[in-house]
Write a structure and sequence with these properties.
Helix content of chain A: 25-40%
Strand order of the largest sheet of chain A: 6-7-8-3-9-10
Low-confidence stretches of chain B: none
Order of helices and strands of chain B: HHEHHEEHEEEEHEHEHHHH
Strand content of chain A: 25-35%
Number of domains of chain A: 1
CATH topology of chain A: Rossmann fold
Radius of gyration of chain A: 18 Å
Radius of gyration of chain B: 30 Å
Oligomer: heterodimer
Largest interface: A-B, 36 and 30 residues
Low-confidence stretches of chain A: none
Largest sheet of chain A: 6 strands, mixed
Chain lengths: 233, 401
Amino acid sequence: MRISARKIERTFFRKTGQANFFYAVKETDFTLLEGNITGIIGRSGSGKTTFINMLCGLLRPTSGSIEVDGVDFITLDDDSASLLRNRKFGIIPQSQTPIQSFSVIENVMAPAFIYKSDLSREEVYNRAISLLSRLGIESLEDEYPSQLSGGELRRMAIARALINDPEVIIADEPTSDLDDKSTDAVLNLMRELAGEGKSVLIVTHDRDAEKICDVIYKMDGGVLKKDTETASK
Amino acid sequence: MNFAVSTAHRNLRYRLTRTVALASLIMVLSFTLFSGGYVLISLKQGLESYGTRLGADVIVVPSSSAGHGTVDDILLQGITGNYYISSKDIDKVLSTRGIEKATKQFYLTSAKASCCSLRVQIIGFDPETDFSIMPWVKKSYSDVIRDGDLVVGSRLNVPENRKISFYGKTYTVVAQLLETGTGLDNAVYTNMNTIRQMARDASNLLERAPFKGLDIDKAASAILIKVKDGHSVQDVADDINIHITKIKATSSRSMIHNIASGLRSISSITGVLILAVWFFALVILVIVFTMLSNERKREFALLRTIGVSRKILVSIMAYETAIIAIAGSLLGIIVALPVTFIIKVSIQDALSLPFLTPGLVTMLLLGVFAFVLSVLTCMITSSISAGRLSKNETSLLLREE
Protein backbone atom coordinates (compact mmCIF):
# COMPACT_ATOMS: atom_id res chain seq x y z
CA MET A 1 0.00 0.00 0.00
CA ARG A 2 1.46 3.30 -1.07
CA ILE A 3 0.94 6.58 0.73
CA SER A 4 1.81 9.77 -1.10
CA ALA A 5 1.80 13.19 0.48
CA ARG A 6 1.98 16.21 -1.83
CA LYS A 7 2.91 19.65 -0.58
CA ILE A 8 1.38 19.07 2.84
CA GLU A 9 1.63 21.80 5.43
CA ARG A 10 0.28 22.19 8.91
CA THR A 11 0.05 25.34 10.91
CA PHE A 12 -1.12 25.74 14.48
CA PHE A 13 -2.40 28.82 16.20
CA ARG A 14 -0.84 30.06 19.38
CA LYS A 15 -2.58 32.28 21.86
CA THR A 16 0.60 33.93 23.06
CA GLY A 17 3.80 35.14 21.49
CA GLN A 18 4.49 37.56 18.67
CA ALA A 19 3.35 35.36 15.79
CA ASN A 20 -0.13 34.04 16.25
CA PHE A 21 0.53 30.89 14.23
CA PHE A 22 3.49 28.71 13.36
CA TYR A 23 4.35 25.96 10.91
CA ALA A 24 4.60 22.53 12.54
CA VAL A 25 5.21 20.98 9.12
CA LYS A 26 6.31 23.09 6.15
CA GLU A 27 5.46 22.21 2.54
CA THR A 28 6.50 18.57 2.24
CA ASP A 29 6.39 15.84 -0.39
CA PHE A 30 6.69 12.28 0.81
CA THR A 31 6.04 8.74 -0.43
CA LEU A 32 5.83 5.64 1.71
CA LEU A 33 6.58 2.59 -0.41
CA GLU A 34 5.46 -1.04 -0.05
CA GLY A 35 8.12 -3.45 1.20
CA ASN A 36 10.26 -0.64 2.56
CA ILE A 37 11.16 0.51 6.02
CA THR A 38 11.28 4.28 6.08
CA GLY A 39 12.76 6.08 9.03
CA ILE A 40 12.20 9.62 10.23
CA ILE A 41 14.60 11.17 12.68
CA GLY A 42 14.66 14.58 14.22
CA ARG A 43 14.77 16.50 17.44
CA SER A 44 11.87 16.68 19.81
CA GLY A 45 9.34 19.28 18.62
CA SER A 46 10.60 19.18 15.03
CA GLY A 47 7.15 18.16 13.69
CA LYS A 48 7.57 14.37 13.34
CA THR A 49 4.43 13.43 15.30
CA THR A 50 2.35 16.07 13.50
CA PHE A 51 3.60 14.66 10.22
CA ILE A 52 2.66 11.04 10.99
CA ASN A 53 -0.69 12.14 12.46
CA MET A 54 -1.42 13.67 9.05
CA LEU A 55 -0.26 10.56 7.20
CA CYS A 56 -2.71 8.33 9.07
CA GLY A 57 -5.61 10.74 8.75
CA LEU A 58 -5.82 11.83 12.38
CA LEU A 59 -4.95 15.42 11.54
CA ARG A 60 -5.90 17.34 8.44
CA PRO A 61 -3.12 19.23 6.71
CA THR A 62 -3.67 22.96 6.39
CA SER A 63 -2.88 22.51 2.69
CA GLY A 64 -1.70 19.78 0.32
CA SER A 65 -3.02 16.28 -0.37
CA ILE A 66 -2.51 12.76 0.92
CA GLU A 67 -3.38 9.76 -1.20
CA VAL A 68 -3.66 6.20 0.06
CA ASP A 69 -3.54 3.81 -2.86
CA GLY A 70 -4.93 6.57 -5.08
CA VAL A 71 -7.72 7.52 -2.67
CA ASP A 72 -7.70 11.11 -1.41
CA PHE A 73 -7.47 10.57 2.34
CA ILE A 74 -8.25 14.18 3.22
CA THR A 75 -11.63 14.30 1.50
CA LEU A 76 -12.87 11.10 3.17
CA ASP A 77 -15.46 11.63 5.90
CA ASP A 78 -14.49 10.65 9.44
CA ASP A 79 -16.35 7.30 9.36
CA SER A 80 -14.63 6.17 6.15
CA ALA A 81 -11.23 7.49 7.24
CA SER A 82 -11.56 5.73 10.62
CA LEU A 83 -12.54 2.45 8.94
CA LEU A 84 -9.59 2.76 6.57
CA ARG A 85 -7.27 3.46 9.51
CA ASN A 86 -8.66 0.47 11.40
CA ARG A 87 -8.32 -1.93 8.50
CA LYS A 88 -5.15 -0.79 6.77
CA PHE A 89 -3.07 1.06 9.37
CA GLY A 90 -1.26 -0.26 12.40
CA ILE A 91 -0.25 2.68 14.55
CA ILE A 92 2.16 2.37 17.45
CA PRO A 93 1.98 5.65 19.36
CA GLN A 94 4.91 7.09 21.22
CA SER A 95 2.99 7.52 24.45
CA GLN A 96 2.12 4.61 26.70
CA THR A 97 -1.63 4.76 26.34
CA PRO A 98 -3.42 1.49 26.92
CA ILE A 99 -7.16 1.05 27.35
CA GLN A 100 -6.96 0.80 31.14
CA SER A 101 -10.23 -1.08 31.60
CA PHE A 102 -9.20 -3.85 29.18
CA SER A 103 -6.83 -6.70 29.97
CA VAL A 104 -3.71 -7.16 27.83
CA ILE A 105 -5.39 -9.68 25.51
CA GLU A 106 -8.48 -7.46 25.23
CA ASN A 107 -6.31 -4.44 24.43
CA VAL A 108 -4.66 -6.38 21.64
CA MET A 109 -7.96 -7.75 20.29
CA ALA A 110 -9.88 -4.44 20.55
CA PRO A 111 -9.17 -3.08 17.02
CA ALA A 112 -10.62 -6.27 15.52
CA PHE A 113 -14.01 -5.65 17.14
CA ILE A 114 -14.61 -1.97 16.40
CA TYR A 115 -16.19 -2.83 13.05
CA LYS A 116 -17.83 -6.02 11.80
CA SER A 117 -15.25 -8.54 10.74
CA ASP A 118 -15.19 -11.90 8.95
CA LEU A 119 -12.92 -13.26 11.65
CA SER A 120 -14.40 -15.21 14.55
CA ARG A 121 -13.54 -14.28 18.13
CA GLU A 122 -11.44 -17.45 18.37
CA GLU A 123 -9.44 -16.57 15.26
CA VAL A 124 -8.78 -13.07 16.60
CA TYR A 125 -7.78 -14.54 19.96
CA ASN A 126 -5.35 -16.99 18.36
CA ARG A 127 -3.81 -14.21 16.33
CA ALA A 128 -3.48 -12.04 19.43
CA ILE A 129 -1.82 -14.84 21.40
CA SER A 130 0.57 -15.51 18.52
CA LEU A 131 1.57 -11.80 18.43
CA LEU A 132 1.99 -11.64 22.20
CA SER A 133 4.17 -14.74 22.19
CA ARG A 134 6.22 -13.33 19.33
CA LEU A 135 6.84 -10.27 21.51
CA GLY A 136 7.47 -12.40 24.61
CA ILE A 137 4.52 -11.31 26.75
CA GLU A 138 1.98 -14.09 26.16
CA SER A 139 2.03 -14.91 29.89
CA LEU A 140 0.60 -11.45 30.61
CA GLU A 141 -2.57 -11.92 28.56
CA ASP A 142 -4.91 -11.64 31.56
CA GLU A 143 -3.06 -8.84 33.34
CA TYR A 144 -4.26 -5.28 33.27
CA PRO A 145 -2.13 -2.40 31.90
CA SER A 146 -1.62 -0.92 35.36
CA GLN A 147 0.39 -4.04 36.26
CA LEU A 148 2.73 -3.81 33.23
CA SER A 149 6.15 -2.18 32.90
CA GLY A 150 6.88 0.44 30.22
CA GLY A 151 8.54 -2.14 27.96
CA GLU A 152 5.65 -4.57 28.33
CA LEU A 153 3.17 -1.81 27.51
CA ARG A 154 5.20 -0.94 24.40
CA ARG A 155 5.12 -4.56 23.22
CA MET A 156 1.39 -4.78 23.92
CA ALA A 157 0.89 -1.64 21.78
CA ILE A 158 2.87 -3.26 18.94
CA ALA A 159 0.73 -6.41 19.11
CA ARG A 160 -2.41 -4.25 19.12
CA ALA A 161 -1.21 -2.35 16.04
CA LEU A 162 -0.70 -5.61 14.16
CA ILE A 163 -3.89 -7.47 15.09
CA ASN A 164 -5.78 -6.47 11.92
CA ASP A 165 -2.81 -7.47 9.72
CA PRO A 166 -2.39 -3.87 8.47
CA GLU A 167 -0.71 -2.93 5.22
CA VAL A 168 0.89 0.18 6.69
CA ILE A 169 2.70 0.23 10.02
CA ILE A 170 3.47 3.61 11.50
CA ALA A 171 5.58 3.35 14.62
CA ASP A 172 6.54 6.32 16.77
CA GLU A 173 9.60 5.31 18.80
CA PRO A 174 8.72 1.59 18.81
CA THR A 175 11.89 0.58 20.67
CA SER A 176 11.89 3.16 23.45
CA ASP A 177 11.49 1.54 26.89
CA LEU A 178 12.74 -1.80 25.49
CA ASP A 179 15.81 -3.81 26.51
CA ASP A 180 18.24 -5.04 23.86
CA LYS A 181 16.58 -8.43 23.46
CA SER A 182 13.12 -6.95 23.02
CA THR A 183 14.50 -4.26 20.70
CA ASP A 184 15.95 -6.98 18.49
CA ALA A 185 12.65 -8.87 18.49
CA VAL A 186 10.71 -5.74 17.50
CA LEU A 187 13.18 -4.75 14.77
CA ASN A 188 13.16 -8.29 13.38
CA LEU A 189 9.39 -8.15 13.33
CA MET A 190 9.50 -4.85 11.42
CA ARG A 191 11.92 -6.36 8.94
CA GLU A 192 9.62 -9.36 8.43
CA LEU A 193 6.61 -7.12 7.94
CA ALA A 194 8.44 -5.11 5.28
CA GLY A 195 9.49 -8.41 3.75
CA GLU A 196 5.82 -9.34 3.44
CA GLY A 197 5.36 -6.23 1.31
CA LYS A 198 3.99 -3.96 4.02
CA SER A 199 4.93 -0.28 4.24
CA VAL A 200 6.71 0.49 7.48
CA LEU A 201 7.38 3.98 8.79
CA ILE A 202 9.45 4.36 11.94
CA VAL A 203 10.02 7.57 13.84
CA THR A 204 13.08 6.96 15.97
CA HIS A 205 16.13 8.21 17.80
CA ASP A 206 17.48 4.67 18.14
CA ARG A 207 20.66 3.98 16.15
CA ASP A 208 19.77 0.25 15.93
CA ALA A 209 16.39 1.13 14.51
CA GLU A 210 17.94 3.49 12.01
CA LYS A 211 20.11 0.61 10.77
CA ILE A 212 17.12 -1.39 9.53
CA CYS A 213 15.68 1.51 7.52
CA ASP A 214 15.83 1.44 3.72
CA VAL A 215 15.53 5.19 3.58
CA ILE A 216 15.81 7.83 6.29
CA TYR A 217 14.35 11.30 6.41
CA LYS A 218 15.29 14.03 8.79
CA MET A 219 12.72 16.44 10.15
CA ASP A 220 14.07 19.80 11.21
CA GLY A 221 11.91 22.81 12.03
CA GLY A 222 8.98 21.30 10.16
CA VAL A 223 11.04 20.61 7.03
CA LEU A 224 11.42 16.98 5.95
CA LYS A 225 14.53 16.09 3.97
CA LYS A 226 16.09 12.83 2.90
CA ASP A 227 19.03 12.16 5.23
CA THR A 228 21.96 11.02 3.15
CA GLU A 229 24.37 10.75 6.07
CA THR A 230 22.60 8.09 8.10
CA ALA A 231 20.97 6.01 5.37
CA SER A 232 22.40 2.50 5.55
CA LYS A 233 21.24 1.23 2.21
CA MET B 1 -22.74 -6.35 22.19
CA ASN B 2 -21.08 -3.75 19.97
CA PHE B 3 -17.74 -2.12 20.70
CA ALA B 4 -19.17 1.13 22.07
CA VAL B 5 -21.54 -0.60 24.52
CA SER B 6 -19.00 -3.14 25.77
CA THR B 7 -16.29 -0.47 26.15
CA ALA B 8 -18.71 1.77 28.07
CA HIS B 9 -19.62 -1.13 30.40
CA ARG B 10 -15.98 -2.00 31.00
CA ASN B 11 -15.04 1.61 31.67
CA LEU B 12 -17.84 2.05 34.19
CA ARG B 13 -16.87 -1.12 36.05
CA TYR B 14 -13.17 -0.28 35.96
CA ARG B 15 -13.73 3.23 37.35
CA LEU B 16 -16.28 2.15 39.93
CA THR B 17 -15.69 5.02 42.36
CA ARG B 18 -16.20 7.60 39.63
CA THR B 19 -19.30 5.73 38.40
CA VAL B 20 -20.83 5.55 41.88
CA ALA B 21 -20.04 9.22 42.61
CA LEU B 22 -21.69 10.39 39.40
CA ALA B 23 -24.70 8.10 39.85
CA SER B 24 -25.09 9.42 43.41
CA LEU B 25 -25.19 12.99 42.13
CA ILE B 26 -27.91 12.08 39.63
CA MET B 27 -29.68 10.16 42.39
CA VAL B 28 -29.81 13.31 44.55
CA LEU B 29 -31.16 15.25 41.58
CA SER B 30 -33.97 12.81 40.74
CA PHE B 31 -34.74 12.35 44.46
CA THR B 32 -35.16 16.13 44.84
CA LEU B 33 -37.22 16.46 41.67
CA PHE B 34 -39.50 13.60 42.68
CA SER B 35 -39.94 14.42 46.37
CA GLY B 36 -40.12 18.19 45.72
CA GLY B 37 -42.69 17.62 42.99
CA TYR B 38 -44.58 15.34 45.36
CA VAL B 39 -44.77 18.07 48.03
CA LEU B 40 -45.84 20.71 45.49
CA ILE B 41 -48.57 18.53 43.96
CA SER B 42 -49.79 17.35 47.37
CA LEU B 43 -50.13 20.92 48.61
CA LYS B 44 -51.94 22.00 45.44
CA GLN B 45 -54.30 19.03 45.57
CA GLY B 46 -54.79 19.60 49.29
CA LEU B 47 -55.94 23.15 48.66
CA GLU B 48 -58.32 22.01 45.92
CA SER B 49 -59.66 19.30 48.19
CA TYR B 50 -59.99 21.83 51.02
CA GLY B 51 -62.03 24.17 48.82
CA THR B 52 -64.20 21.29 47.59
CA ARG B 53 -64.82 19.99 51.11
CA LEU B 54 -65.79 23.42 52.34
CA GLY B 55 -68.37 23.44 49.60
CA ALA B 56 -70.04 26.54 51.05
CA ASP B 57 -69.80 30.25 50.31
CA VAL B 58 -70.17 31.28 53.95
CA ILE B 59 -69.45 29.34 57.13
CA VAL B 60 -71.04 30.43 60.37
CA VAL B 61 -69.66 29.34 63.73
CA PRO B 62 -69.97 30.73 67.26
CA SER B 63 -67.47 33.56 67.81
CA SER B 64 -66.52 31.89 71.10
CA SER B 65 -65.09 29.00 69.09
CA ALA B 66 -62.08 31.12 68.04
CA GLY B 67 -58.92 29.32 69.05
CA HIS B 68 -60.83 26.31 70.30
CA GLY B 69 -61.23 24.16 67.23
CA THR B 70 -62.75 26.25 64.49
CA VAL B 71 -63.90 24.77 61.20
CA ASP B 72 -60.55 25.90 59.86
CA ASP B 73 -58.72 23.98 62.57
CA ILE B 74 -60.80 20.88 62.03
CA LEU B 75 -60.27 21.00 58.29
CA LEU B 76 -56.55 21.66 58.45
CA GLN B 77 -55.26 19.94 61.51
CA GLY B 78 -58.08 17.83 62.85
CA ILE B 79 -58.15 19.90 66.05
CA THR B 80 -61.36 18.97 67.78
CA GLY B 81 -63.90 21.23 69.39
CA ASN B 82 -67.35 21.39 70.97
CA TYR B 83 -69.17 24.67 70.36
CA TYR B 84 -72.73 25.45 69.56
CA ILE B 85 -75.05 28.06 68.14
CA SER B 86 -78.38 28.39 69.88
CA SER B 87 -81.61 27.67 68.00
CA LYS B 88 -82.53 31.37 68.25
CA ASP B 89 -79.34 32.45 66.50
CA ILE B 90 -79.76 29.70 63.90
CA ASP B 91 -83.16 31.12 62.98
CA LYS B 92 -81.67 34.60 62.70
CA VAL B 93 -78.90 33.34 60.43
CA LEU B 94 -81.31 31.44 58.21
CA SER B 95 -83.49 34.52 57.80
CA THR B 96 -80.61 36.56 56.33
CA ARG B 97 -81.26 37.77 52.81
CA GLY B 98 -79.42 36.20 49.90
CA ILE B 99 -79.21 32.63 51.18
CA GLU B 100 -79.98 29.98 48.57
CA LYS B 101 -79.19 26.89 50.62
CA ALA B 102 -78.12 26.32 54.19
CA THR B 103 -77.22 23.20 56.11
CA LYS B 104 -76.34 22.65 59.75
CA GLN B 105 -73.52 20.60 61.22
CA PHE B 106 -73.18 19.39 64.79
CA TYR B 107 -69.73 18.74 66.22
CA LEU B 108 -69.00 16.47 69.12
CA THR B 109 -65.67 15.37 70.48
CA SER B 110 -65.65 11.84 71.81
CA ALA B 111 -64.28 11.39 75.31
CA LYS B 112 -60.93 9.92 76.23
CA ALA B 113 -62.61 7.37 78.45
CA SER B 114 -63.82 3.78 78.50
CA CYS B 115 -67.17 4.85 77.07
CA CYS B 116 -65.55 5.63 73.70
CA SER B 117 -63.46 3.45 71.40
CA LEU B 118 -61.33 6.40 70.28
CA ARG B 119 -61.06 10.15 70.75
CA VAL B 120 -62.10 11.81 67.52
CA GLN B 121 -64.15 14.64 66.17
CA ILE B 122 -67.62 13.44 65.29
CA ILE B 123 -69.42 15.53 62.71
CA GLY B 124 -73.15 15.27 62.38
CA PHE B 125 -74.76 16.49 59.18
CA ASP B 126 -78.17 16.43 57.56
CA PRO B 127 -78.02 14.24 54.44
CA GLU B 128 -81.22 15.87 53.17
CA THR B 129 -79.87 19.42 53.05
CA ASP B 130 -76.11 18.82 52.99
CA PHE B 131 -74.08 20.00 50.01
CA SER B 132 -70.66 19.79 51.64
CA ILE B 133 -70.14 16.25 52.95
CA MET B 134 -72.61 14.19 50.89
CA PRO B 135 -70.84 14.65 47.50
CA TRP B 136 -67.73 13.27 49.17
CA VAL B 137 -69.59 10.41 50.92
CA LYS B 138 -71.24 9.41 47.64
CA LYS B 139 -67.83 8.66 46.16
CA SER B 140 -67.44 5.70 48.50
CA TYR B 141 -70.98 4.97 49.76
CA SER B 142 -74.14 5.15 47.69
CA ASP B 143 -76.69 3.93 50.27
CA VAL B 144 -78.66 6.07 52.74
CA ILE B 145 -76.96 6.91 56.04
CA ARG B 146 -79.39 5.49 58.56
CA ASP B 147 -79.59 6.17 62.28
CA GLY B 148 -76.66 4.42 63.97
CA ASP B 149 -74.53 4.36 60.79
CA LEU B 150 -71.08 5.88 60.82
CA VAL B 151 -68.87 6.94 57.93
CA VAL B 152 -65.22 7.41 58.85
CA GLY B 153 -62.31 9.41 57.45
CA SER B 154 -59.52 7.70 55.55
CA ARG B 155 -56.96 7.93 58.33
CA LEU B 156 -59.00 6.12 60.97
CA ASN B 157 -58.42 2.44 61.63
CA VAL B 158 -61.69 0.59 61.34
CA PRO B 159 -62.00 -2.52 63.59
CA GLU B 160 -62.60 -5.82 61.79
CA ASN B 161 -66.15 -6.10 63.13
CA ARG B 162 -66.75 -2.49 61.96
CA LYS B 163 -68.18 -1.54 65.37
CA ILE B 164 -67.19 1.62 67.26
CA SER B 165 -68.53 2.74 70.64
CA PHE B 166 -69.28 6.31 71.67
CA TYR B 167 -70.67 7.24 75.06
CA GLY B 168 -71.72 3.70 75.92
CA LYS B 169 -73.42 2.82 72.65
CA THR B 170 -72.08 0.84 69.70
CA TYR B 171 -72.36 2.07 66.12
CA THR B 172 -71.64 0.44 62.75
CA VAL B 173 -69.11 1.78 60.29
CA VAL B 174 -70.78 1.55 56.87
CA ALA B 175 -68.08 3.22 54.79
CA GLN B 176 -64.66 4.75 54.84
CA LEU B 177 -64.19 7.97 52.89
CA LEU B 178 -61.57 8.86 50.31
CA GLU B 179 -58.58 10.86 51.47
CA THR B 180 -58.88 14.66 51.43
CA GLY B 181 -55.48 15.53 52.83
CA THR B 182 -57.18 17.65 55.53
CA GLY B 183 -58.13 17.16 59.17
CA LEU B 184 -61.44 15.75 57.94
CA ASP B 185 -59.64 12.47 57.29
CA ASN B 186 -59.42 11.99 61.07
CA ALA B 187 -63.16 12.57 61.74
CA VAL B 188 -66.24 10.35 62.03
CA TYR B 189 -69.47 11.33 60.24
CA THR B 190 -73.05 10.48 60.99
CA ASN B 191 -76.54 11.88 60.53
CA MET B 192 -78.11 14.46 62.84
CA ASN B 193 -80.33 11.99 64.70
CA THR B 194 -77.38 9.83 65.63
CA ILE B 195 -75.09 12.64 66.76
CA ARG B 196 -77.84 14.26 68.81
CA GLN B 197 -78.38 10.88 70.51
CA MET B 198 -74.64 10.71 71.18
CA ALA B 199 -74.77 14.21 72.65
CA ARG B 200 -77.65 13.20 74.94
CA ASP B 201 -75.68 10.11 76.02
CA ALA B 202 -72.63 12.27 76.64
CA SER B 203 -74.72 14.67 78.65
CA ASN B 204 -75.93 11.79 80.84
CA LEU B 205 -72.52 10.19 81.21
CA LEU B 206 -70.31 13.24 81.68
CA GLU B 207 -70.82 15.73 84.44
CA ARG B 208 -69.50 18.75 82.54
CA ALA B 209 -70.65 18.19 78.97
CA PRO B 210 -70.19 21.44 77.00
CA PHE B 211 -73.76 21.48 75.70
CA LYS B 212 -75.45 21.44 79.10
CA GLY B 213 -78.22 23.99 79.05
CA LEU B 214 -78.48 23.86 75.27
CA ASP B 215 -81.41 22.51 73.31
CA ILE B 216 -79.50 19.62 71.77
CA ASP B 217 -82.26 18.85 69.28
CA LYS B 218 -82.12 22.33 67.77
CA ALA B 219 -78.54 23.56 68.35
CA ALA B 220 -75.80 23.32 65.76
CA SER B 221 -72.05 23.88 65.68
CA ALA B 222 -71.83 25.40 62.23
CA ILE B 223 -74.08 26.58 59.45
CA LEU B 224 -72.85 26.25 55.89
CA ILE B 225 -74.44 28.65 53.44
CA LYS B 226 -74.66 28.84 49.68
CA VAL B 227 -75.41 32.36 48.48
CA LYS B 228 -78.01 33.08 45.79
CA ASP B 229 -76.78 34.24 42.40
CA GLY B 230 -76.71 38.02 42.24
CA HIS B 231 -75.87 38.39 45.92
CA SER B 232 -72.40 39.12 47.24
CA VAL B 233 -70.91 36.44 49.46
CA GLN B 234 -69.10 39.09 51.50
CA ASP B 235 -72.32 41.10 51.93
CA VAL B 236 -74.14 38.05 53.29
CA ALA B 237 -71.26 37.30 55.71
CA ASP B 238 -71.09 40.96 56.79
CA ASP B 239 -74.86 41.07 57.22
CA ILE B 240 -74.71 38.10 59.60
CA ASN B 241 -71.74 39.49 61.53
CA ILE B 242 -73.39 42.90 61.98
CA HIS B 243 -76.81 41.67 63.03
CA ILE B 244 -76.06 38.65 65.14
CA THR B 245 -73.73 38.74 68.10
CA LYS B 246 -71.79 35.67 69.34
CA ILE B 247 -71.66 34.52 65.74
CA LYS B 248 -68.82 34.68 63.27
CA ALA B 249 -69.52 34.35 59.55
CA THR B 250 -66.54 33.85 57.28
CA SER B 251 -66.54 33.66 53.51
CA SER B 252 -64.89 30.43 52.45
CA ARG B 253 -63.05 32.37 49.75
CA SER B 254 -61.23 34.37 52.44
CA MET B 255 -60.45 31.13 54.30
CA ILE B 256 -59.08 29.61 51.11
CA HIS B 257 -57.25 32.85 50.36
CA ASN B 258 -55.45 32.67 53.70
CA ILE B 259 -54.54 29.05 53.15
CA ALA B 260 -53.48 29.77 49.57
CA SER B 261 -51.16 32.54 50.79
CA GLY B 262 -49.47 30.14 53.18
CA LEU B 263 -49.38 27.52 50.47
CA ARG B 264 -47.82 29.92 47.99
CA SER B 265 -44.93 30.66 50.36
CA ILE B 266 -44.27 26.97 51.01
CA SER B 267 -44.65 26.16 47.30
CA SER B 268 -42.30 28.99 46.35
CA ILE B 269 -39.66 27.83 48.83
CA THR B 270 -40.01 24.23 47.62
CA GLY B 271 -39.89 25.36 43.98
CA VAL B 272 -36.80 27.49 44.57
CA LEU B 273 -35.11 24.60 46.38
CA ILE B 274 -35.86 22.24 43.48
CA LEU B 275 -34.53 24.79 40.99
CA ALA B 276 -31.43 25.42 43.11
CA VAL B 277 -30.65 21.69 43.38
CA TRP B 278 -31.23 21.28 39.63
CA PHE B 279 -29.03 24.28 38.82
CA PHE B 280 -26.20 23.15 41.11
CA ALA B 281 -26.42 19.64 39.71
CA LEU B 282 -26.23 21.15 36.21
CA VAL B 283 -23.16 23.23 37.07
CA ILE B 284 -21.44 20.36 38.88
CA LEU B 285 -22.17 17.98 35.99
CA VAL B 286 -20.79 20.42 33.41
CA ILE B 287 -17.61 20.80 35.50
CA VAL B 288 -17.31 17.05 36.18
CA PHE B 289 -17.84 16.04 32.56
CA THR B 290 -15.42 18.70 31.30
CA MET B 291 -12.79 17.52 33.79
CA LEU B 292 -13.41 13.89 32.89
CA SER B 293 -13.15 14.48 29.16
CA ASN B 294 -9.91 16.42 29.66
CA GLU B 295 -8.57 13.66 31.86
CA ARG B 296 -9.53 11.06 29.26
CA LYS B 297 -8.09 12.83 26.21
CA ARG B 298 -5.21 10.36 25.91
CA GLU B 299 -7.55 7.38 26.16
CA PHE B 300 -9.80 8.84 23.47
CA ALA B 301 -6.78 9.71 21.31
CA LEU B 302 -5.61 6.11 21.51
CA LEU B 303 -9.07 4.90 20.45
CA ARG B 304 -8.82 7.21 17.45
CA THR B 305 -5.48 5.67 16.43
CA ILE B 306 -6.97 2.17 16.41
CA GLY B 307 -9.77 3.30 14.11
CA VAL B 308 -12.57 4.50 16.38
CA SER B 309 -14.56 7.18 14.57
CA ARG B 310 -15.77 10.33 16.29
CA LYS B 311 -19.29 8.92 16.09
CA ILE B 312 -18.29 5.74 17.97
CA LEU B 313 -16.31 7.82 20.46
CA VAL B 314 -19.35 9.97 21.20
CA SER B 315 -21.43 6.75 21.45
CA ILE B 316 -19.06 5.35 24.10
CA MET B 317 -19.38 8.55 26.14
CA ALA B 318 -23.15 8.63 25.59
CA TYR B 319 -23.58 4.99 26.69
CA GLU B 320 -21.49 5.59 29.80
CA THR B 321 -23.50 8.69 30.68
CA ALA B 322 -26.83 7.03 29.88
CA ILE B 323 -26.09 4.03 32.11
CA ILE B 324 -25.03 6.30 34.99
CA ALA B 325 -27.99 8.64 34.45
CA ILE B 326 -30.59 5.87 34.19
CA ALA B 327 -29.26 3.99 37.23
CA GLY B 328 -28.91 7.19 39.31
CA SER B 329 -32.33 8.54 38.36
CA LEU B 330 -34.12 5.25 39.02
CA LEU B 331 -32.36 4.87 42.35
CA GLY B 332 -33.32 8.43 43.33
CA ILE B 333 -36.98 7.75 42.64
CA ILE B 334 -36.88 4.36 44.35
CA VAL B 335 -35.35 5.95 47.48
CA ALA B 336 -37.79 8.89 47.30
CA LEU B 337 -40.88 6.65 47.18
CA PRO B 338 -40.76 5.17 50.69
CA VAL B 339 -39.23 8.36 52.11
CA THR B 340 -42.12 10.52 50.86
CA PHE B 341 -44.66 8.09 52.24
CA ILE B 342 -42.88 7.90 55.59
CA ILE B 343 -42.54 11.65 55.97
CA LYS B 344 -46.00 12.38 54.58
CA VAL B 345 -47.60 12.65 58.03
CA SER B 346 -44.65 14.69 59.32
CA ILE B 347 -45.03 17.10 56.40
CA GLN B 348 -48.74 17.49 57.12
CA ASP B 349 -48.11 18.20 60.80
CA ALA B 350 -45.14 20.47 60.20
CA LEU B 351 -46.75 22.60 57.50
CA SER B 352 -50.29 22.66 58.91
CA LEU B 353 -51.56 22.95 55.38
CA PRO B 354 -53.92 20.71 53.43
CA PHE B 355 -51.79 17.98 51.91
CA LEU B 356 -53.29 15.40 49.60
CA THR B 357 -51.08 12.63 48.25
CA PRO B 358 -51.37 12.37 44.44
CA GLY B 359 -52.99 9.30 42.91
CA LEU B 360 -51.11 6.46 41.26
CA VAL B 361 -51.27 7.97 37.76
CA THR B 362 -49.98 11.35 38.99
CA MET B 363 -47.23 9.62 40.97
CA LEU B 364 -46.26 7.65 37.86
CA LEU B 365 -46.21 10.81 35.76
CA LEU B 366 -44.16 12.56 38.44
CA GLY B 367 -41.75 9.64 38.45
CA VAL B 368 -41.44 9.79 34.67
CA PHE B 369 -40.92 13.57 34.83
CA ALA B 370 -38.19 13.30 37.50
CA PHE B 371 -36.54 10.43 35.62
CA VAL B 372 -36.60 12.11 32.21
CA LEU B 373 -35.43 15.50 33.53
CA SER B 374 -32.55 13.92 35.50
CA VAL B 375 -31.45 11.77 32.57
CA LEU B 376 -31.76 14.69 30.13
CA THR B 377 -29.79 17.01 32.42
CA CYS B 378 -27.03 14.43 32.63
CA MET B 379 -27.04 13.65 28.90
CA ILE B 380 -27.06 17.30 27.82
CA THR B 381 -24.22 18.31 30.16
CA SER B 382 -22.20 15.31 29.03
CA SER B 383 -22.89 15.97 25.36
CA ILE B 384 -21.52 19.52 25.71
CA SER B 385 -18.07 18.24 26.65
CA ALA B 386 -18.29 15.23 24.31
CA GLY B 387 -19.23 17.50 21.40
CA ARG B 388 -16.49 19.99 22.21
CA LEU B 389 -13.93 17.21 22.42
CA SER B 390 -14.96 15.34 19.29
CA LYS B 391 -15.11 18.47 17.12
CA ASN B 392 -11.60 19.58 18.01
CA GLU B 393 -9.27 17.22 16.10
CA THR B 394 -6.09 18.40 17.81
CA SER B 395 -7.48 17.51 21.23
CA LEU B 396 -7.75 13.89 20.12
CA LEU B 397 -4.12 13.44 19.19
CA LEU B 398 -1.45 11.59 21.05
CA ARG B 399 1.31 14.13 21.55
CA GLU B 400 5.04 13.65 21.82
CA GLU B 401 6.16 12.82 25.34
